[in-house]
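Sanity check

After download, print the first record. It should look like this:
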Amino acid sequence: MRTPRTFVAAATLLAACGNAPAGAGAPAPASAAAASAAAVGPTSPAAAPPPAAQAAAAPAQAPCGALGCLAFDTPAQAFSHVLQSSPRVLAVGESHAQQGAEGVPSATRRFTELFLPALAGRASDLIVELWAADPRCNKEQVARVEGEQKAVTQAQSASNQGEFLALGSEAKRLGVTPHLLVPSCEEYDAIVRAGPDAVTAMLEMIARLTAAKAKALLGREGAAGKMVVAYGGALHNDVAPRPGRERWSFGPELSATTGGKYVELDLIVREFIRDSESWRALPWYPHFDREEHPDKAVLFNPAPGSYVLIFPFPRAR
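Expected structure tokens:
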């Protein structure tokens, strides 16, 4: 049995999903109605994406240091560079916005507005790390699990869940089918039975459900040539998880399934980066100067198939 201190550490990891100072493993579970609206319901036409999002120009890149660092004029150009390998699975991880950061566009919003249009016609499906409870499950068990999750995501910006749902809706409008995670009743029961290990059970379940869904989508008849995108916290997509976190990541499994046609992309909002122990533990952090190239999209390539994209500061008007 975990001690309370160990449980708190695991809870912090869920809230961080790889980047403890900045976000959560998954926003609070979606309601059945919201899940239905995001996954299958009608959506209102969205505003036309900006030209940079419709078709990125040939990347104008410049070396900027270690770990294959490249500086691009725009985030769209950096994203285009990441897609050059034509992955079968693009696993996007983010640092979720926290309370008090509502004035800074989140990684989810930027992905939706800047990058998602570039995936229209290239991606078939989008798996969003947002839970939808099966209405057949025991409501008390579901409520207990939701309570465990909310306890470690309460520091998030209140807009996070809505932005995840908006991401699914916009994907649907662009012809990319969105999917939410739907834990089985048995999985809810297992999390409740885990007691102080509930957070670890959630982390493992997220990885397991995402991997299973992605493999099912990849295996469909006629799926060849189209990309499956997974979007969630920057922990579950690790292609080379840290020791002890192997069961929390679907990266190795999906990389093997696709014969290496797997790309891990972490999205970092520059304003959220802090000088803290958890940020300093990230491999790219020692090579990044927050004030250097402030108007550029900085892209690190720490390992084959692994990228970290740091958004520029907003341009002065």
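If your output differs, re-run the checksum step. Summary of this record's structure: The longest strand covers residues 123-131.
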